[in-house]
Amino acid sequence: MEMSWTHQNFTRRRTLAAATGLAAGAFLPHAAHGAHQSHGPALTAAAEYTNPVIWQDFADIDVIRVGDTYYASASTMHYSPGAPVLRSYDLVNWEIAGHSVPRLDFGAKYDLNGARGYVRGIWASSLAYRPSNRTFYWLGQIDFARTYVYTATAVEGPWNRLTTIGTPYYDAGLLVDSDDSLYVAYGNTVISVARLSPDGREQVRTQEVFRTPSSVGTLEGARFYRINGQYYIFLTRPANGQYVLKSSGGPFGPYTMRQVLLDLRGPIPGGGVPHQGGLVQTQSGAWYYLAFVDAYPGGRVPALAPVTWTPDGWPVVQLVNGAWGTSYPSPAVPAPPRPVTPMTGVDTFDGTALAPRWEWNHNPDDTRWSAGGGLTLRTATVTNDLYWARNTLTHRIQGPTSTATVQLDFSAMRDGDRAGLALLRDSSAWIGLKRDGGVTRVVMVGGLAMDTSWNTTHTGTELAGASVSGGRIWLRANADIRPGAPRPGTFSYSTDGTTFTRLGPAFSLGNDWRFFMGYRFALFNHATRALGGAVRVARFELSAP
Question: Whole-angstrom Cα distance, residue 324 to residue 292?
Fold first, then answer.
């Protein structure tokens, strides 16, 4: 029987191999993983915030606070650089600060070199801060083979690989304990805890601490905390529940389990149940749960809710009319030192490095692109398949609807080249330029597709086209990513940057969950005959109503 993705009790391992109300008398613990007390300026709060707090694709969230600053990490699968670090001063307004994994240096498939890494790579991982050495730690397993640890003294980087550990810590949560010891909670159904060496480079002990009852099914997505002297492992039941384990006897247990939420109505119409995120404490002692909501075709988007505690130390999500609230009173925090950088707006690629809003589809060939006075994409692959083309640069779509507009100089294209702007996922479409026989045409291509093993089944069909002259064009893609049903994407072009002409039929953005990542806008340039051509992106603008 085929089931709706919002109700499937699935695991990524299987995929790749084949509510509670507000408690009366809240108890607020005082110390937690990533939560450090601050004695800064007076606390302030705006009236309310609205969920989702970020309407972009950031899933499997880990969230911490260091002083007056909040940080979150997310999954990126096959996109590079991986594991973005988000930053906020109020838990509501976020910016992308950097990436914990500078390059997916885990094998040739992440370079599109003879193999592909779609729906592999950076899964649920962990972000932590260690006060003793003032260092951020990222920890995650790759391909069920081993675990990697990266460190940095600032989230902007540089991030460097600290170590590789032979045990693959599936869906790991890293805890920096109050005595500076490092522990990892991990696993799927069978939950284990590992202790690392003081330098974080080796595993010194690992032990099973909990086996999920068959009545619950699957638990994964561990987040590990020490709160008020007790140990908590926060776990998700994909994709509709959240549970917590609690131990008074130490990090290795014994643990008891309690349900936090199940089949809870979420804050996004058509979206799923908020789950798989983390807990964080504000400077004033209040607690919040930052989860994600399945919201395909756009992906998995973060939502925030207050948490209180029962007198015997169990977390309780504060609900609004029996559901995860669409809005709540904003957290009372110190006034931000500055506004965060918007996730929408204009990029003219003035610097030599890309802004952290950008991620490549697999690792790029760094000899074939450059930035500064625009973005130059030289052809890096000879292929007729966009899914095999290196140096395709992606940007998350802003929900519920948004528009990407690109100004493109195509005067240096060569015969056989294909360049443009795509709506990229396992089913894709694009608007762009084909140059053949010395003639350049603007075209809309649809029907690009992969199967559920992520092999290409169709490289696309031209559905509309028009002749263009000169060397400059504006391309535009509009995406509707409201969840609950397939939604339309449309394409248009302009020769003057002002008047746009619709090209081709609407493209249906699929809402199946199995690719995990949501649709993205993608800039590409690849050859079908020989390398040597180039295009220059002078301007990219992401706008939302």
Answer: 12
State mean pLDDT over 513-531. 98
Long-range contacts formed by 345-351: CB under 8 A, 24+ apart: 345/541, 345/542, 345/543, 346/539, 346/540, 346/541, 347/539, 347/540, 347/541, 348/374, 348/538, 348/539, 348/540, 349/373, 349/374, 349/375, 349/537, 349/540
User: Which residue carries 């931000």 as its tokens?
Assistant: 336
537's tokens? 């992106």
DSSP-based three-state secondary structure for 381: coil
Give just the sign of the alpha carbon dihedral 209, 308, 25, 228.
Answer: positive
Neighbours of 120 (CB within 10 A): 21
Whether 527 and 454 have beta carbons less than 8 Å apart is answered as no
pLDDT-derived band at 392 (thresholds 50, 70, 90) equals very high
- Under 8 Å CB-to-CB from 365, ≥6 apart: which residues? 380, 390, 391
Percent of the chain with pLDDT over 90: 91
Phi first, then psi, for residue 386 (nearest 5°) are -60, -30
Per-residue pLDDT tens digits for 413-451: 999 999 999 999 999 999 999 999 999 999 999 999 999
Measured at the CA of 389, the angle between CA 384 and CA 394, to 5 degrees, comes to 130
The DSSP letter of residue 74 is -
| Residue indicated by tokens 């699957």 | 218
> Could you tell me how far CA 436 lies from the centroid of its own chain?
38
CB 316 within 8 A of CB 23: yes
Segment 172-181 mean pLDDT:
98
CB 39 within 8 A of CB 282: no
Query: Which residue type, as a one-letter code, is found at position 42?
Result: A
Q: Which two tokens stand for residue 188?
A: 């799927």
Q: Give the confidence band of 4 by pLDDT, cuts at 50, 70, 90.
A: very low
